[in-house]
Design brief:
Jelly Rolls; 2 domains; 43% strand
């Protein structure tokens, strides 16, 4: 079982605000089991093997028919999950794994990973919010986990969700990630909303991971140690370890998976869609001691989806380098006519642009006489390497590494 350790330390910068009015209420259905006897370990959901989302998820609230399988836009295989939000409307629906209905005890820890994409024409008005993911939710114990009903009391529901928002970002090609939680210490009636400050790209698949640990309970009191963590394309972007959700061991994680709601009071300014693929879940004992350390690697077949590509080639020494991009960058690999074969480098770490630094940064240590590849949107502004790179290619053009700025301000 994974131990309670810190993956990421966040400092400052988070906006807390309630989402007032018009929020969707996630109400448990009366029929079906509220608890099970089996322990949930893990599941990989193969959309290709099913005809309808209701075969693998509980699809309920809002407009369930807006969730559908489709084969026109997938990450792997022939089928992806799609949820439509029509112009002028707010509701999508929920398509989540319902653990008790499958005979499982509610897990006290849940890790999820999926590929997610906003539609290519995704747009949002200023300050708008759209929820797209449920890291963990309980409605069986009560209705306090949603719907602007006020602060949960520890035995009547809770939730941890993620959203995209137009707040605190000025980029037509991306929207900010946000966390939205109903917990015992929230100040408003509509949960707690935190802008994470990690850009979510429009029209591109991104790898999304969440991990939730329920808080422990001591003598009927909730300990402030409930945890939520989130990774975007392998980069840790959110961590919080002080949640109080429950005062009873009987209330844990009832649901997890896709959840779609636009607003608040806002409505979609155009016809929008969210896509999901490769959804996997692990619970309790199946959560490994650590996540897979390898970075997210974009398939080179999607090269044309990006503005350009970068290849760095090293000389006869191990090289530490940093690439600054004014925009968005992902790791990738390919072979090209210049004899370079770029393969995944497990040391690659990518920090997404934020309002403080302003640049996406890729850091790595590369072996002698090796090549690493990246895909990017925006512009490459600087490359710093020690020792100097043997070769640097941007968009198929070889550049003199010594002539490229090593810092954005140069």
């Amino acid at each position: 079982m994974v131990d309670r350790r810190s993956y990421l330390k966040l400092t400052g910068g988070a906006l807390t605000a309630g989402i007032a009015g018009g929020v969707i209420a996630l109400v448990a259905r009366d029929e079906g089991g509220g608890g099970g006897t089996a322990t949930f370990e893990e599941r990989e959901i193969e959309y290709d093997a099913h005809d309808d989302p209701s075969d693998v998820y509980r699809v309920w609230t809002g407009y369930p028919e807006r969730f559908a399988f489709e084969n026109g836009r997938t990450y792997t295989g022939e089928t992806a999950l799609r949820c439509d939000i029509p112009e002028g409307d707010s509701d999508g629906s929920n398509a989540m794994v319902w653990f008790p209905d499958d005979g499982y005890d509610q897990p006290r820890a849940l890790y999820q990973r999926a590929m997610v994409s906003l539609s290519e024409d995704w747009t949002m008005a200023e300050t708008d919010v759209c929820r797209f993911w449920c890291a963990g939710l309980n409605t069986e114990a009560g209705v306090q986990g949603s719907g602007s009903r006020g602060r949960p009391h520890g035995d009547d529901g809770w939730s941890s969700m993620f959203a995209v928002t137009d707040r605190e970002i000025d980029d037509e090609a991306a929207y900010n990630l946000a966390a939205y939680s109903y917990h015992m210490d929230q100040e408003g009636i509509s949960g707690e909303f935190e802008v994470v400050g990690a850009p979510v790209p429009v029209g591109k698949w991104f790898q999304f991971e969440t991990l939730v640990w329920m808080n422990t309970v001591s003598d009927g009191a909730a300990d402030p140690n409930g945890e939520v963590r989130c990774w975007l394309n392998g980069t840790p972007v959110y961590e919080r370890t002080d949640f109080r959700w429950t005062t009873t061991e009987d209330q844990a994680i009832e649901y997890g998976g896709p959840l779609v709601r636009y607003g608040g009071d806002e409505t979609a300014p155009a016809d929008l869609a969210l896509y999901y693929d490769d959804h996997e879940l692990r619970g309790n004992g199946a959560i490994e001691d650590q996540r897979d350390p390898d970075p997210y690697v974009e398939d080179p077949s999607r090269m044309d989806d990006y503005d350009g590509r970068i290849t760095v080639a090293t000389g006869d020494e191990e090289t530490r380098y940093r690439i600054y991009v004014d925009g968005y960058v992902v790791h990738s690999g390919w072979s090209n006519v210049d004899g370079h074969t770029a393969v995944p480098n497990e040391t690659v770490e990518i920090e997404l642009a934020d309002d403080t630094e302003g640049y996406a940064v890729a850091d790595a240590v590369a072996d002698p006489e090796s090549a690493d590849g990246f895909l990017y949107d925006g512009s490459v502004v600087a490359v710093d390497a020690d020792p100097e790179l043997a070769e640097l290619w941007v968009d198929g053009q070889e550049l003199d590494p010594a002539a490229v700025p090593s810092r954005p301000e140069e």
